[in-house]
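so im writing up the methods section and need the Aminopyrimidine aminohydrolase record in one place, dumping it here so i stop losing it
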Amino acid sequence: MTQIPDIARSPAATDPLSPMKPGAFSTKAWQDNLTLYETIRTMPFNEELAAGTLSKARFTQYIVQDAHYLIGFGRALAIAAAKAPHPDQIVQFSKGAEVAIVVERSLHGSFFDDFGITQDMFETTPVSPGCSHYVSYLLATAWSEPYEVVLAALLPCFWIYAEIGRDIHARASENNPYQAWIDTYAGEEFHDAVRAMIATTDAAAAAASANNLARMHFSYRRATQLEYMFWDSAYRLEDWPV
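--- predicted struct ---
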């Protein structure tokens, strides 16, 4: 039997980036999926990343697949911008798409150099099943679902990365070879973007119909499950079986 992690161990369990406002979508979504978040926080990939013992092969697999993922994530953000009802949100998600593709790919480029990954190696490495599943889900949701449901599907990538980065930063080993990654996702600049995403999603949820609110919660949970699958696929060095 798999042991359920002790939720009280996680700083994010009691101090998430979003203020826990009664009635807010983010409050219920976080609380309903807290055990799932804790499973992600304590999974082997993140435990070994924090300890600095994660193998180079696994981190390389993660970085290459994450670079592939960011292209699809940027497209999904661009679709959210097109569906946004107000100009401020159009700007918010357009800038988010730019960050996903330009700024974060620049960060990955430095990791590529550090770990000996050439552009040709990246371009010829197929998208893994886990990455393909996640990107396909986000794009299908972005194209076919209402604006507020799209935001709920995009939110876990922002929020969980921030909380995991913050948690790992607090317990990372000294001279951790992955410190640059840890510092990026634990930094306040990224956290400010996450808080803005949470606030925008909550505002959209407040005006959503009961049916769309239920769909938002489904989308948030499914994307959270896919967050786990993405990290797990990197740890298992997942490839297509045939």
